Amino acid sequence: MANLNSPEDIDYGILDTLIGYKLRRAQVNIFNAFSEHCSRFGITPGLFGVLSIVERNPGLTQTAIANALGNDRSAMVSVVDRLESMNIVERKPSASDRRSHALFLTKHGEAFYKELVAEVLNHEASFTSLLKDGEKDLIIDILDRIGAHKPSKV
Q: Distance between CA atoms of 31 and 49, rounded to whole angstroms?
């Protein structure tokens, strides 16, 4: 009989053969490690995604950022509120749509982001060190294809 207190002794059955399950387990492990690396910054993987898009695309609207990341638009308000309260991001009226806000990094946000990226790259290195030459590019290629796939409806 399996020791139910030890994940190593549990028979995962079909789960061990499913890409979705393996991706989710890997994501949880990577996100937990991200939290450990970046906890001093008060930044989650989701907030980092928003910051990365804003840093490379200053002036995008909250809606455009939500769409780019596949996030719920309604959740963006609280995300931006949080980043704004940390003096990392600022809202300005959008040049293309007066009903929307465009997002920009503050001066503090620019310096903060550079420091954060250095820590994120350290975090990433702890996982990529497990890989052989070329495997990171292969994994990214595979994940890009899976992420872009739109299964046909039955």
A: 12
List average pLDDT for each run of 10 residues in the chain, which is 154 residues long: 72 95 96 93 95 97 93 90 97 84 96 97 95 97 94 81
Strand, coil or helix: 124: helix
Give the H or E element holding residue 65. Answer: helix 62-69
Distance CA 147, CA 13 (A): 25
Nearest to 39 by CA among 105, 129, 119: 119
Measured CA to CA, the distance from residue 24 to residue 143 in angstroms comes to 12
| Encoded amino acid at 101, one letter | H
